[in-house]
Amino acid sequence: MRAIGRFRIPPQTTEQVMATGRNFLFIPGPTNMPEAVRQALTVVQEDQRAPDVADFILPLFADLKQIFQMRDGQVFVFPSSGTGGWEAAVTNTLSPGDKVLGACFGVFSELWTGLCRRYGLAVDAVEVDWGEGVPVETYAERLRADRAHEIKAVLVTHNETATGVTSDVAAVRRALDAANHPALLFVDGVSSIASIDFRMAEWGVDVAVAGSQKGFMLPTGLAIVAVSNKALAAMKTAKLPRSFFSFEDMLRTNRDGHFPYTPPMTLLRGLRASVDLLLSEGLPNVFRRHHRMAEGVRRGVAAWGLRLCAGAPQWHSDTVSTILTPAGIDAGLLVKHAYRRYNLSLGVGLARLAGKAFRIGHLGELNELMVLAALGGSEMALRDLGATLTPGAGVGAAAEYFRESAAPAN
Question: β-strands 184-188, 344-348: how paired?
Answer without folding.
Answer: unpaired
